[in-house]
Amino acid sequence: MPRPLRPLLLALVAGLLVTAGPAEAQFRSQGNNSTKFRVDTTFVTIIVPASAFDRRTGIAVVTVPRAIMGTVHSNRPWTLKVRAESMDAQNRTGTESKPCSDLAIRGGNNAGFRPLSVTSTGLITGGKTYGWQPVAIDLQLTARLTDAGSAYTFRLQFDID
Amino acid sequence: MKIKYYCLAAIALGAGSSLFAQSSQHVNVNAVVPVLMNLTVDTNEVSMIFAQSDYKADGTADKQVVNATTFKVSSNSRWRLYVSSNTQTFSFNPSSGGQNPGKSCGDLSLSPNDTNNYFSVTTGNKDIGNGMPGGFDDAGHSIPVNYKLHTTLAGDPPGTYVLTLTFTLMPG
């Protein structure tokens, strides 16, 4: 083998090895940040029973603990963020809607529920994980008698930094 | 120099996959809200006891009970409240003999919201209120009803007269 080609081939092989490995391995070998979030629950149904309504105020509050389950993998401190994809949750025909703030959310061990908005806000924070770490997210829906009887879909987007 | 370029390319390829790891995750939350219509009333019985002094010189008397019943509506759709009599006539239980006079349900009049706009009861539905979605505490969701009964000395022998009314809440 001609002498000038040898380092070039070695570099190519090294490059292939780097690109062929799994994503997590790449980040570790390069010392880069690796932070990932996966949802195990992609569809949640909250049914508001008629008995949940306060007949005076016309308000019903339904809490669903651990409504959304997911896992986080990170080799550095991380923040899971959430936002509503639109200002209003609409019914299937688009004739009725509820504000996205009628759905509140909290990270498993956090204290208070926070109403959703279209602005991404921090939900859960954590440190470096050892493998995939489960996270639980609670939901709380507020229904009002001013909401027509229907099924409303809230679309949530999660991002991790 | 070439070697440096190849190494940079290889590292760039590896780093590129981190972009995919940062992609957003999506969850749909479906909230099912039922159709709700709820009607309550504070009392199911209204009594009017006529005294001799209630009768006028022409032998007629009208007895009124203000806000004898209050209906409350909670609904997540527009609503209407109707009233009707279950029967054309009052039932009669004489106190000192006498035949059932067949006292008409129309002798009973109602007035919602203390408006003093009385209408006679019939066996057909009559509209006594309507409103927007909301709970009991919302404006217009509480409907007091006045009752007025007309009687005559000539037509109504002494006794107890009973009429049953049905109040029906419907989507409006």
Explain how this protein is built.
The complex is a heterodimer of chains A (161) and B (172). Chain A has 161 residues and is mainly beta. Helices cover 15% and strands 47% of the residues of chain A. Chain A has two helices and eleven strands; from the N terminus they run ααβββββββββββ. Chain B is mainly beta and 172 residues long. Chain B has one domain (37-171): Immunoglobulin-like (Sandwich). Chain B contains one helix and eleven strands; from the N terminus they run αβββββββββββ. In chain B, strands 2-3-9-6-7 form a five-stranded antiparallel sheet, with no helix packed on it. In chain B, strand 6 (108-112) and strand 7 (119-120) form a beta hairpin. Chain B is elongated. The interface between A and B is large, with 67 and 41 residues.
- Largest sheet descriptor of chain A: 5 strands, antiparallel
Mean pLDDT of chain A: 83
The percent range for strand residues of chain B is 35-45%
Indicate the percent of residues in helices of chain B: 10-25%
Low-confidence stretches of chain A: 8-31
Radius of gyration of chain B: 33 Å
Structural domains of chain A: how many? 2
CATH topology description of the largest domain in chain A? Immunoglobulin-like
Estimated radius of gyration of chain A: 23 Å
